């Protein structure tokens, strides 16, 4: 390899095998449709880039500077593909989350004709939460059994229920999982897509620091004449 640094060598070794690429870029088979295509494109680009860089490092027909410059070009091309996949995955995550939140808003919409009962449940939650011994357990149990109570908690701010919004969100998440599990799963899928996408910038940086020696690549640009 052109960069013989231990960290660089380990990165290239990992990216030469599917399991290493999957750990950093995501495993295409775990996704479907557009996310799968984007992650597959990232994996394919990495496999190609590593193959080229390894072969270029052994190309004695080029000067050391020329080899490093060619490897830098490959890192640039790889970075462009990974950035495109990263942005695409974030867009897909936003779409998935928006659809899930629309589903939640639709199913947890409170029926105005039952406002009296909503107020009773609202007051019950606020009263129960003041019980330090059993309040939280009672609320949590009721949320999982009572769809309308889950909707009331989802639709109110924490301070209106006598609790912090962090606590309210925790209760609301339990209600969501109990009553609209498909939406909860979709929110989890959006988070998973963002987690994969967020790794790509680090991979791009690692590729540039591992594939070539920047000083040699820049020396080639300064001295090379077409």
Structure overview:
It is a single chain. This protein starts with 5 loop residues before the first helix and ends with a helix. Helix content is 79%, strand content 0%. Helix 6 crosses helix 7 (147-155). The mean pLDDT is 96. It is mainly α.
Keywords:
226 residues; 79% helix; mainly alpha; 10 helices
Assign a percent range to the helix content: over 70%
Please identify the oligomeric state: single chain
Q: Which band does the percent of strand residues land in? A: under 5%
Radius of gyration, taken over Cα atoms and rounded to an integer in Å: 26 Å
- In round numbers, the mean pLDDT is 96
* Low-confidence runs of at least 5 consecutive residues: none
State the end-to-end CA separation.
26 Å
Number of DSSP strand runs = 0
What pattern of helices and strands is seen along the backbone?
HHHHHHHHHH
Q: Please work out how many helical segments DSSP would assign.
A: 10
C-alpha geometry = elongated
Structural class of the secondary elements?
mainly alpha
Helix and strand topology:
Elements (H helix, E strand, L loop, with lengths): L5 H10 L2 H8 L7 H25 L6 H44 L7 H15 L5 H11 L1 H9 L9 H15 L1 H31 L2 H10 L3
Helix pairs in contact: 1-9, 2-3, 3-4, 4-9, 4-10, 5-6, 5-7, 6-7, 6-8, 7-8, 8-9
In short:
With 226 residues, the protein is mainly alpha-helical.
């Amino acid at each position: 390899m052109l960069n013989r640094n231990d960290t660089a060598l380990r990165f290239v070794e990992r990216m030469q095998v599917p399991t290493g690429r999957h750990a950093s870029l995501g495993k295409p088979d775990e996704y479907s449709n557009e996310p799968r295509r984007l992650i597959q494109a990232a994996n394919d680009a990495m496999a190609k880039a590593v193959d080229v860089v390894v072969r270029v490092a052994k190309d004695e027909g080029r000067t050391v500077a020329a080899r490093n410059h060619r490897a830098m070009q490959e890192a640039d091309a790889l970075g462009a593909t990974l950035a495109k996949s990263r942005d695409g995955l974030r867009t897909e995550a936003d779409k998935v989350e928006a659809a899930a939140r629309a589903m939640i808003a639709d199913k947890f919409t409170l029926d105005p004709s039952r406002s009296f009962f909503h107020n009773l449940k609202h007051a019950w939650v606020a009263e129960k939460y003041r019980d330090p011994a059993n309040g939280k357990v009672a609320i949590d149990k009721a949320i999982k059994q009572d769809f309308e109570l889950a909707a009331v908690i989802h639709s109110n701010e924490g301070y209106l229920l006598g609790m912090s919004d962090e606590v309210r969100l925790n209760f609301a998440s339990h209600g969501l999982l109990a009553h609209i599990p498909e939406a909860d799963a979709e929110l989890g899928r959006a988070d998973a897509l963002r987690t994969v996408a967020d790794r790509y910038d680090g991979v791009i940086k690692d590729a540039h620091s591992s594939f070539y020696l920047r000083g040699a690549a820049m020396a080639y640009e300064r001295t090379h004449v077409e």
